[in-house]
Amino acid sequence: MSIKEVIMMQQSSSFSDSSKLQDLFESGTRKDFVAEVRQAMRQILAKLQVEDHYEQVISEIKREPGYRDLNNTWEKLEPAVRRQKWQELMERLVQLAYATRPYCLRCGECCRQGSPSLHHEDLELLDHDLISIRQIYTLRQGEPVKFNIEGRLGFLPGELIKIKEDPESRNCIFLVRENNNCTIYHHRPLQCRVQACWDPEKLEKLYHQKKLTRRHLLREDQPLLELLEAHNERCSFEKLDSAFKKFHETGDEKAIDQVLDILRQDMVFRDFVKTKLDRDEEELDFLLGRPLMELVRAYGVRVEKDENNVYHLVSEQ
């Protein structure tokens, strides 16, 4: 868990009593301020699973200029200033707490936030079958995704490959939930090796590096690469997004027909690769990306088939 995430949780009602904090900012005394700092510190250390570091961190925070300034001037400050300075102090508290444990506890928290993307350094893992293509999937260019580092939704600027996730929990498939073990820990991908929740800088740098694509893994199979290019062209997210935009802007039903045609073509490609090329069902999410039938939910709709086997789009609102 990153420093930013712990700070956000500490400030949210799910982590602390937001109404109590509001009262602190509005009318709390210096004594109340000191008590809340201690309570916040206990919560942060509990989240980081280092409760026994309490005395060490409290001693350090008391020497911080920001804490001493707040402690001396709290009752003279306006509520808005108290809130701002409190948030700055919380960030420093989290940093001090993390500094007491710059090592991985193998708590499994990062593995529960999703799976890693694969980089060029991970090609060796696939070449030696330490990770199989049945255990990975492709995110295609233009696919609607959530950018975890940036904390926003958007469209993927380029293709990448990820380890598969449990469809219900989003846990990485290599996480053993009962004991937080990773079944490929000694052969884990680069992203897992550089990820350090107490110091996200290395992961943020890696985020901007080029990643593995299908072309790197299928470099010797030119006919299959040509088929995938045809699939990319006919079932592109650019076309899908354009059709949805046209429908929302004009209400033109022909745009919905275009969406359904793209979905049908995606199904035809998937069936062809499975039946004619004799590829395993579990390989399809790598070879062709995830089914568009599932991904249209990002546009607020789902696909249903009527009694005549005709597909329709149904709003999920």
Describe the protein:
The protein has about 325 residues and is mostly helical. The protein has 15 helices and eight strands. The protein has three domains: about 5-100, no CATH class; about 110-215, no CATH class; about 220-315. About 50% of the residues lie in helices and about 10% in strands. A two-stranded antiparallel ribbon has the order 1-4. Strands 2-3 form a two-stranded antiparallel sheet. α1 packs across α6 and α3 runs parallel beside α6 (about 80-100). About 25% of the residues are buried.
Task: Summarize this entry quickly.
Helix content is 49%, strand content 9%. The protein has helices at 3-11, 18-27, 30-47, 54-62, 65-73, 79-99, 123-127, 190-194, 201-207, 214-217, 222-234, 237-250, 253-275, 284-287, 292-295; strands at 136-139, 144-147, 152-155, 160-163, 175-176, 181-182, 301-305, 311-315.
Shape category: globular
Largest sheet: 2 strands, antiparallel
Return the string of H and E elements.
Answer: HHHHHHHEEEEEEHHHHHHHHEE
Instruction: Give the tally of β-strands.
Output: 8
Number of domains: 3
Q: CA-to-CA gap between the ends?
A: 32 Å
Strand order of the largest sheet: 1-4
Note the beta-strand portion: 5-15%
List the uncertain runs: none
Radius of gyration: 25 Å
Question: What is the helical fraction, as a range of percent?
Answer: 40-55%
How many H/I helical runs?
15
**Arithmetic mean of pLDDT:** 88
What structural class is derived from the secondary structure elements?
mainly alpha
Q: What are the defining features of this structure?
A:
15 helices; globular; two-stranded antiparallel sheet; 3 domains; mainly alpha; 317 residues; 8 strands
